[in-house]
Protein backbone atom coordinates (compact mmCIF):
# COMPACT_ATOMS: atom_id res chain seq x y z
CA UNK A 1 0.00 0.00 0.00
CA UNK A 2 1.28 3.44 -1.02
CA UNK A 3 0.57 5.39 2.16
CA UNK A 4 1.41 8.71 0.53
CA UNK A 5 -1.16 8.10 -2.22
CA UNK A 6 -3.77 6.65 0.10
CA UNK A 7 -3.78 9.67 2.38
CA UNK A 8 -2.48 12.34 -0.01
CA UNK A 9 0.44 13.06 2.31
CA UNK A 10 2.07 16.45 1.78
CA UNK A 11 5.17 17.88 3.50
CA UNK A 12 5.85 21.59 3.86
CA UNK A 13 8.44 23.78 5.52
CA UNK A 14 11.83 23.07 7.02
CA UNK A 15 13.08 22.63 10.53
CA UNK A 16 14.29 20.17 13.10
CA UNK A 17 10.85 19.72 14.65
CA UNK A 18 7.92 18.09 12.88
CA UNK A 19 4.23 18.96 13.23
CA UNK A 20 1.58 16.51 12.06
CA UNK A 21 -1.91 17.87 11.36
CA UNK A 22 -5.00 15.67 11.69
CA UNK A 23 -8.19 17.01 10.14
CA UNK A 24 -11.63 16.93 11.68
CA UNK A 25 -14.67 15.33 10.09
CA UNK A 26 -15.57 16.52 6.61
CA UNK A 27 -12.38 18.54 6.13
CA UNK A 28 -9.25 18.04 4.08
CA UNK A 29 -5.76 19.35 4.78
CA UNK A 30 -6.50 22.76 3.24
CA UNK A 31 -8.45 23.58 6.42
CA UNK A 32 -5.10 24.35 8.09
CA UNK A 33 -4.02 27.00 5.60
CA UNK A 34 -4.44 29.88 8.06
CA UNK A 35 -1.93 28.30 10.46
CA UNK A 36 0.62 26.61 8.21
CA UNK A 37 2.43 29.73 6.92
CA UNK A 38 3.58 30.71 10.41
CA UNK A 39 4.60 27.17 11.38
CA UNK A 40 6.36 26.38 8.09
CA UNK A 41 8.98 29.07 8.76
CA UNK A 42 10.63 26.98 11.47
CA UNK A 43 9.07 23.50 11.40
CA UNK A 44 8.49 20.64 9.01
CA UNK A 45 4.76 20.12 8.50
CA UNK A 46 3.07 16.84 7.60
CA UNK A 47 -0.47 17.15 6.29
CA UNK A 48 -2.75 14.43 4.99
CA UNK A 49 -6.36 13.56 4.15
CA UNK A 50 -8.49 10.87 5.71
CA UNK A 51 -9.56 8.23 3.19
CA UNK A 52 -12.73 9.51 1.54
CA UNK A 53 -11.86 13.21 1.81
CA UNK A 54 -9.74 15.66 -0.13
CA UNK A 55 -7.41 14.05 -2.66
CA UNK A 56 -7.14 10.74 -0.82
CA UNK A 57 -7.45 7.43 -2.64
CA UNK A 58 -11.08 6.44 -2.05
CA UNK A 59 -10.33 3.02 -3.58
CA UNK A 60 -8.26 2.33 -0.44
CA UNK A 61 -11.35 2.46 1.76
CA UNK A 62 -11.88 -0.83 3.60
CA UNK A 63 -15.17 -1.01 5.57
CA UNK A 64 -13.71 -3.40 8.14
CA UNK A 65 -10.61 -1.25 8.78
CA UNK A 66 -12.63 1.93 9.14
CA UNK A 67 -15.40 0.44 11.25
CA UNK A 68 -13.94 2.32 14.22
CA UNK A 69 -11.68 5.32 14.77
CA UNK A 70 -8.84 2.86 15.34
CA UNK A 71 -8.60 2.39 11.57
CA UNK A 72 -8.01 6.09 11.10
CA UNK A 73 -5.46 6.03 13.92
CA UNK A 74 -3.65 3.22 12.10
CA UNK A 75 -3.47 5.42 8.99
CA UNK A 76 -1.76 8.10 11.07
CA UNK A 77 0.68 5.58 12.51
CA UNK A 78 1.41 4.25 9.01
CA UNK A 79 2.39 7.77 7.99
CA UNK A 80 4.59 8.20 11.06
CA UNK A 81 6.32 4.89 10.32
CA UNK A 82 6.75 5.64 6.62
CA UNK A 83 8.39 8.98 7.39
CA UNK A 84 10.40 7.57 10.33
CA UNK A 85 9.03 10.27 12.60
CA UNK A 86 9.91 10.58 16.27
CA UNK A 87 8.65 12.86 19.04
CA UNK A 88 6.45 14.98 16.80
CA UNK A 89 3.90 17.57 17.83
CA UNK A 90 0.44 16.53 16.69
CA UNK A 91 -2.21 19.17 16.02
CA UNK A 92 -5.65 17.59 15.72
CA UNK A 93 -9.11 19.08 15.31
CA UNK A 94 -12.37 17.62 16.62
CA UNK A 95 -12.51 13.91 15.75
CA UNK A 96 -8.98 14.31 14.38
CA UNK A 97 -7.94 15.14 17.94
CA UNK A 98 -9.38 11.84 19.15
CA UNK A 99 -7.74 9.96 16.27
CA UNK A 100 -4.43 11.51 17.32
CA UNK A 101 -5.01 10.52 20.93
CA UNK A 102 -5.79 6.92 19.97
CA UNK A 103 -2.58 6.81 17.91
CA UNK A 104 -0.56 8.19 20.83
CA UNK A 105 -2.01 5.60 23.18
CA UNK A 106 -1.09 2.83 20.76
CA UNK A 107 2.41 4.07 19.81
CA UNK A 108 3.42 6.84 22.23
CA UNK A 109 7.03 7.04 21.07
CA UNK A 110 5.98 8.89 17.93
CA UNK A 111 4.49 11.83 19.83
CA UNK A 112 6.05 14.48 22.05
CA UNK A 113 2.83 16.40 22.63
CA UNK A 114 -0.78 16.60 21.43
CA UNK A 115 -2.34 19.98 20.66
CA UNK A 116 -6.07 19.28 20.45
CA UNK A 117 -8.59 21.78 19.08
CA UNK A 118 -12.18 21.30 20.28
CA UNK A 119 -11.74 17.60 21.13
CA UNK A 120 -14.63 15.47 22.37
CA UNK A 121 -14.51 11.81 23.39
CA UNK A 122 -18.32 11.52 23.29
CA UNK A 123 -20.99 13.82 21.85
CA UNK A 124 -23.88 12.17 23.70
CA UNK A 125 -25.46 13.21 26.97
CA UNK A 126 -25.29 10.09 29.11
CA UNK A 127 -25.82 9.89 32.85
CA UNK A 128 -23.86 12.71 34.45
CA UNK A 129 -21.80 13.33 31.31
CA UNK A 130 -22.75 16.28 29.10
CA UNK A 131 -21.56 15.76 25.55
CA UNK A 132 -23.97 18.25 24.02
CA UNK A 133 -26.53 16.07 22.23
CA UNK A 134 -29.36 13.68 22.96
CA UNK A 135 -29.06 10.39 21.08
CA UNK A 136 -32.41 10.90 19.34
CA UNK A 137 -31.30 14.26 17.97
CA UNK A 138 -28.07 12.79 16.60
CA UNK A 139 -29.92 9.87 15.04
CA UNK A 140 -32.25 12.31 13.29
CA UNK A 141 -29.29 14.32 12.00
CA UNK A 142 -27.61 11.20 10.67
CA UNK A 143 -30.81 10.00 9.03
CA UNK A 144 -31.08 13.39 7.34
CA UNK A 145 -27.52 12.91 6.12
CA UNK A 146 -28.46 9.50 4.69
CA UNK A 147 -31.35 10.92 2.66
CA UNK A 148 -29.95 14.30 1.57
CA UNK A 149 -26.20 14.69 2.00
CA UNK A 150 -25.97 18.17 0.46
CA UNK A 151 -29.00 19.40 2.40
CA UNK A 152 -27.49 18.01 5.60
CA UNK A 153 -24.20 19.81 4.94
CA UNK A 154 -26.02 23.10 4.35
CA UNK A 155 -27.99 22.63 7.56
CA UNK A 156 -25.21 21.54 9.93
CA UNK A 157 -22.31 23.77 8.90
CA UNK A 158 -23.72 27.03 10.38
CA UNK A 159 -23.85 25.31 13.78
CA UNK A 160 -20.31 23.98 13.39
CA UNK A 161 -18.75 27.23 12.20
CA UNK A 162 -20.72 29.31 14.70
CA UNK A 163 -19.99 32.73 13.19
CA UNK A 164 -23.24 33.85 11.52
CA UNK A 165 -21.80 37.27 10.76
CA UNK A 166 -19.22 35.62 8.49
CA UNK A 167 -21.28 33.50 6.07
CA UNK A 168 -18.33 32.93 3.75
CA UNK A 169 -16.72 30.68 6.38
CA UNK A 170 -19.87 28.57 6.62
CA UNK A 171 -20.12 28.32 2.83
CA UNK A 172 -16.50 27.25 2.65
CA UNK A 173 -17.06 24.50 5.22
CA UNK A 174 -20.21 23.27 3.46
CA UNK A 175 -18.27 23.10 0.20
CA UNK A 176 -15.55 21.08 1.94
CA UNK A 177 -18.13 18.64 3.29
CA UNK A 178 -19.62 18.15 -0.17
CA UNK A 179 -16.23 17.22 -1.63
CA UNK A 180 -16.21 14.05 0.48
CA UNK A 181 -17.27 10.66 -0.78
CA UNK A 182 -20.87 10.56 0.57
CA UNK A 183 -20.92 6.85 1.42
CA UNK A 184 -17.63 7.04 3.34
CA UNK A 185 -18.65 10.32 5.00
CA UNK A 186 -21.90 8.81 6.27
CA UNK A 187 -20.03 5.98 7.96
CA UNK A 188 -17.38 8.33 9.35
CA UNK A 189 -20.10 10.60 10.72
CA UNK A 190 -21.69 7.73 12.65
CA UNK A 191 -18.32 6.81 14.15
CA UNK A 192 -17.73 10.42 15.07
CA UNK A 193 -21.06 11.42 16.55
CA UNK A 194 -22.25 8.14 18.07
CA UNK A 195 -18.87 6.89 19.28
CA UNK A 196 -17.67 6.88 22.86
CA UNK A 197 -13.94 7.04 23.56
CA UNK A 198 -14.20 8.13 27.20
CA UNK A 199 -12.68 4.84 28.38
CA UNK A 200 -9.57 5.54 26.28
CA UNK A 201 -8.81 9.02 27.57
CA UNK A 202 -7.08 8.07 30.83
CA UNK A 203 -4.70 5.78 28.88
CA UNK A 204 -3.12 8.77 27.13
CA UNK A 205 0.05 9.80 28.95
CA UNK A 206 1.34 12.15 26.25
CA UNK A 207 1.24 15.81 27.35
CA UNK A 208 -1.85 17.50 25.90
CA UNK A 209 -3.03 21.01 25.25
CA UNK A 210 -6.82 21.24 25.12
CA UNK A 211 -8.07 24.28 23.21
CA UNK A 212 -11.79 24.90 23.49
CA UNK A 213 -14.02 27.76 22.40
CA UNK A 214 -16.18 29.71 24.82
CA UNK A 215 -19.24 29.17 22.62
CA UNK A 216 -19.19 25.79 20.88
CA UNK A 217 -22.43 23.83 20.48
CA UNK A 218 -20.55 20.80 19.14
CA UNK A 219 -18.10 20.46 22.05
CA UNK A 220 -19.45 22.46 25.02
CA UNK A 221 -17.33 23.69 27.90
CA UNK A 222 -18.24 20.67 30.04
CA UNK A 223 -16.36 18.43 27.60
CA UNK A 224 -13.14 20.36 28.06
CA UNK A 225 -13.50 20.17 31.82
CA UNK A 226 -14.08 16.43 31.58
CA UNK A 227 -10.99 15.86 29.46
CA UNK A 228 -8.79 17.98 31.70
CA UNK A 229 -9.93 15.97 34.71
CA UNK A 230 -9.36 12.60 33.02
CA UNK A 231 -6.11 13.20 31.15
CA UNK A 232 -2.98 12.69 33.29
CA UNK A 233 -1.01 15.52 31.64
CA UNK A 234 -3.32 18.15 30.21
CA UNK A 235 -3.61 21.92 30.10
CA UNK A 236 -6.92 23.53 29.15
CA UNK A 237 -7.22 26.88 27.36
CA UNK A 238 -10.58 28.46 26.56
CA UNK A 239 -10.49 30.93 23.68
CA UNK A 240 -12.99 33.83 23.91
CA UNK A 241 -14.42 32.95 20.49
CA UNK A 242 -17.41 31.12 19.03
CA UNK A 243 -17.68 28.03 16.87
CA UNK A 244 -16.06 24.63 16.53
CA UNK A 245 -13.32 25.59 14.04
CA UNK A 246 -11.10 28.20 15.69
CA UNK A 247 -8.24 27.46 13.28
CA UNK A 248 -10.51 28.91 10.57
CA UNK A 249 -12.60 31.53 12.38
CA UNK A 250 -9.98 32.72 14.88
CA UNK A 251 -6.58 31.68 13.50
CA UNK A 252 -4.50 34.35 15.27
CA UNK A 253 -5.90 33.46 18.70
CA UNK A 254 -5.47 29.76 17.94
CA UNK A 255 -1.91 30.20 16.71
CA UNK A 256 -0.99 32.22 19.80
CA UNK A 257 -2.31 29.49 22.12
CA UNK A 258 -0.48 26.73 20.25
CA UNK A 259 2.82 28.57 20.01
CA UNK A 260 2.74 29.59 23.67
CA UNK A 261 2.29 25.99 24.75
CA UNK A 262 5.01 24.73 22.40
CA UNK A 263 7.44 27.37 23.68
CA UNK A 264 6.89 26.52 27.36
Automatic annotation (TrEMBL):
Keyword presence, Glycoprotein: no
One Pfam family per UniProt: Abhydrolase_6
Entry keyword set: Hydrolase
GO molecular function, one term: hydrolase activity
Residues covered by the AB hydrolase-1 domain: 19-254
Family: Belongs to the AB hydrolase superfamily.
Protein name: Alpha/beta hydrolase
Amino acid sequence: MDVFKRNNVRILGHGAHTLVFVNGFGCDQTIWRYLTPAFSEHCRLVLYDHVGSGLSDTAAYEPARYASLDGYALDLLDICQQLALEQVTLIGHSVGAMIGMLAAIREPHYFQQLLLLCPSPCYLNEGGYHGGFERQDLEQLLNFMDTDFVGWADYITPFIMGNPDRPSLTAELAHSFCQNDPAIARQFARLTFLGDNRADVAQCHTPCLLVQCAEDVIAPLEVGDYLQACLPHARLITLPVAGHCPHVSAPSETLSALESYMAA
